[in-house]
Design brief:
Helix content is about 0%, strand content about 60%. With about 120 residues, the protein is mostly beta strands.
């Protein structure tokens, strides 16, 4: 069993910053890709950023230059530093982890957090 716990969401004004955290726990053998997705009301869930190593990252065009994704492998944690927030960043942000567990060590599986709300007022 693998669990993801997200934190750091909240209500801020445009131009301010937030830092999201997601810690993975459970019978984790190895983590490959980690990332963040978001979903605004009435919209499809969309990619925000993913990371495999510090030099292998992927960002949505809408957040490039403003958001930074990072990870701490020792803590099995992924972070999303969000600067210069805009009202259009308002959404539920979901943590994503692709990992292998001790119970199914040969199988890569995808796990999702419950989501954390980010509201940016104008």
């Amino acid at each position: 069993q693998v669990q993801l716990v997200e934190s750091g969401g909240g209500l801020v004004q445009a131009g301010e910053s937030l830092r999201l955290s997601c810690a993975a726990s459970g019978s984790i053998f190895e983590i490959n890709r980690m990332g963040w997705y978001r979903q605004a009301p009435g919209n499809q869930r969309e990619l925000v950023a993913t990371i495999i190593t510090s030099s292998i990252t992927n960002y949505a065009d809408s957040v490039k230059g403003r958001f930074t994704i990072s990870r701490d492998n020792a803590k099995s944690t992924v972070y999303l530093q969000m600067n210069s927030l805009k009202p259009e960043d308002t959404a539920v942000y979901y943590c994503y982890v692709q990992c292998r567990s001790y119970t199914h060590i040969s199988v890569w599986r995808d796990y999702w957090g419950q989501g954390t709300q980010v509201n940016v007022s104008s």
